[in-house]
Specification:
By secondary structure, the chain is an alpha+beta fold. Helices cover 24% and strands 25% of the residues. It has helices at residues 6-11, 19-33, 42-55, 58-76, 89-96, 100-105, 122-127, 273-278, 343-350, 396-406; strands at residues 114-120, 129-140, 165-173, 176-183, 208-219, 228-231, 246-252, 258-261, 264-272, 281-285, 291-295, 307-310, 316-317, 320-324, 327-334. Strands 8-9-15-12 form a 4-stranded mixed beta sheet. Strands 1-7-6 form a 3-stranded mixed beta sheet. Strands 2-5 form a two-stranded antiparallel ribbon. A hairpin with a 2-residue loop joins strand 3 and strand 4. The chain is elongated and about 130 Å long. The chain binds zinc ion (2 copies). This is DnaJ homolog subfamily A member 1. Keywords: Chaperone, Lipoprotein, Metal-binding, Prenylation, Repeat, Zinc, Zinc-finger. A zinc finger (CR-type) spans 128-212.
Length: 407
């Protein structure tokens, strides 16, 4: 009964399929072969759209069922619009995915997301700031509105009337014809062909122009290294697509004084042994240029590597900037050089410390002196082993014992 099944085959449905079945088939295929997702399948997308356009319309479908594709060309589609042929696949797609459903398809219809890195200082992140970022992006030509042609000029390809396809009919015999459908040689299947003299002078027919764009990047107090700031729909504009996003990723430069750890700031301080024992005062210049005079409580002893902190002098908490982390001081103690005090004065100094435990030499002790140890090239050590004692230094029994412990 049905003359040709080509359109049904394209959608993968039976000739007797219901409208619902046809819609379902189109939705599935149109999303799969949409040029955004599948740029090499533009022709397939067009064919699917044409098949759907015919089969979803009861009148066109009846015409197609009776006379096949040829009947469509002759009386069905061509007759009405003065040879206009099929509608644009994109229009069919938009019409189909219009409204609520289209929101789901939105991600498939968007331009590329562009990622930029922005170098920021710790001061920027402490105080907050606004940075200007200059970049180049494509915007839709304002002169032609993104169509690429001069006002009033013809866009549709004259050869294929915008379908992107050419159909050649060969008479094979008195009652036999052969139709060959090929991609339009004039427009390469685009359906659009613009005479060089009709091109928009502003964009030279490219539909978009390159423009310098200044983005104001607002850095909130407490933002972190690696944090992303998204500028929605600020990516390259492409006709027919929603622009993608621009994503700015913060890259914090190393600070000469402070190191950040979450909301805390760490500062390394070297103090003298006297300060470590007797108490010390430190001046710290904050990231917002205040001066803090920090003193340790009298009687406190600071040991090498000790951590002390000042509450609420760290980084501001992101989105809660009145709250701050801790400022942590990491102390290194600088010891005096050998021979810094004459021996007699040392004995005096000793008087301030708790008495030492008396160690007496007896007949069976040998007196030895300590010398400086260096890891590399010292007597009896192998260079570059990274260990104070090489394995061979231990007796077998000792080694076994060590292995037992570690296993
Ligand atoms: Zn233009
Ligand atoms: Zn063409």
């Amino acid at each position: 009964m049905v003359k040709e099944t080509g359109y049904y085959d394209l959608l993968g449905v039976r000739p007797g399929a219901s409208l619902d079945e046809i819609k379902r088939a189109y939705r599935r295929l149109a999303l799969r072969y949409h040029p955004d997702k599948n740029p090499s399948e533009g022709e397939r997308f067009k064919q699917i759209s044409q098949a759907y356009e015919v089969l979803s319309d009861a009148h066109k479908r009846a015409l197609y069922d009776r006379g096949g594709e040829r009947a469509m060309k002759e009386g069905g589609l061509g007759g009405r619009g003065g040879g206009s042929g099929f509608g644009s696949p994109m229009d069919i797609f938009d019409l189909f995915f219009g409204g609520g459903v289209r929101m789901r398809g939105r991600a498939d219809r968007r331009g590329k997301t562009v990622v930029h890195q922005l170098s920021v200082s710790l001061e920027d992140l402490y105080n907050g700031s606004t940075r200007k970022l200059s970049l180049q992006k494509n915007i839709i030509c304002r002169k032609c509105g993104g169509c690429g042609v001069r006002e009033g000029a013809q866009r549709r390809c004259p050869k294929c009337h915008g379908s992107g396809m050419e159909v050649r009919i060969h008479q094979l015999g008195p009652s036999m014809i052969q139709q060959i459908q090929t991609v339009c040689s004039q427009c390469q299947g685009q359906g659009e062909w613009i005479r060089p003299r009709d091109c928009c002078l502003t964009c030279n027919g490219r539909k978009v122009v390159r423009e310098k764009k200044i983005l104001s990047v607002h850095l909130d107090k407490g933002m972190k290294d690696g944090q992303k700031i998204t500028f929605h729909e600020e990516g390259d504009q492409v006709p027919g697509l929603e622009p993608g996003d621009i994503i700015i990723v913060l890259d914090q430069k190393e600070h000469p004084v402070f190191r950040r750890s979450g909301d805390d700031l760490i500062v390394r301080r070297e103090i003298s042994l006297a300060d470590a024992l007797c108490g010390c005062r430190q001046v710290i210049r904050t990231l917002d240029n205040r001066t803090l005079l920090v003193s340790s409580p009298p009687g406190d002893v600071i040991r090498p590597g000790d951590l002390k902190c000042i509450p609420n002098e760290g980084m501001p908490v992101y989105r809660s900037p009145f709250q701050k982390g801790k400022l942590i001081l990491q102390f290194e103690v600088k010891f005096p050089e050998p021979g810094w005090l004459p021996t007699d004065r040392l004995r005096q100094l000793q008087g301030f410390f708790p008495p030492q435990e008396e160690v007496m030499a007896t007949e069976d002790t040998e007196e030895v002196e300590l010398s400086d140890y260096t890891a590399h090239g010292g007597p009896g050590r192998r260079p570059n082993t990274g260990e104070a004692y090489h394995e061979d230094d231990f007796e077998d029994g000792m080694r076994q014992h060590v292995q037992c412990q570690t296993s």
